[in-house]
Amino acid sequence: MTSTEGNRIIAEFMDVEETSCYVVLNGKKNPYMRLTIPGLDEEIKYFKFRDHDFNDYTCLLFQNSWEWLVPVIAKCYRTNVTLFVTSGLWSALLESDSKLRTWNAIINFIKTNKNEIQRSNSR
Fold it and tell me: What residues does 18 pair with on adjacent strands?
């Protein structure tokens, strides 16, 4: 799985909000997408040039940053503590300081527990 695919899965789990915006550069309107991810303090912006897809998620850094991963880990925990422990996510956190291993465990948690996550979100 590519980082873009994995980050899309995480972004959807985190209920990312996309807002179309424009910025004027050199007297020209340039469209960009602003992403807001709950639990993350920074605002992410990426520009759309020509046919570049707004939904490519290449600007997301979940696989590279603990600052980005921690809000996701917290949401996984809140979704279902038992699943959090039994899914392998808990052991990934305890046994390794690897962001990539944790990132993969989060994606596995989301994909494996899709039904429980949907029930949790509808409450």
Answer: 35
Residues 62 and 104: beta-carbon distance below 8 Å: no
Question: 112: buried, middle or exposed (CB in 10 Å: 19+, 13-18, 0-12)?
Answer: middle
In this predicted model, what pLDDT tens digit does every residue of 38-94 receive, in sequence order? 776 665 554 444 444 555 667 778 898 888 888 899 999 888 888 888 888 888 888
Contact 106, 69 (CB under 8 A): yes
Q: How far is CA 31 from CA 20, 45, 55, in A?
A: 7, 10, 13
- Distance between CA atoms of residues 72 and 6, nearest Å: 13
Q: Give kind and range of the element (H or E) at residue 89.
A: helix 89-95
Give residue limits of the domains in the chain.
3-122
pLDDT for res 47 = 47
pLDDT of residue 49: 43
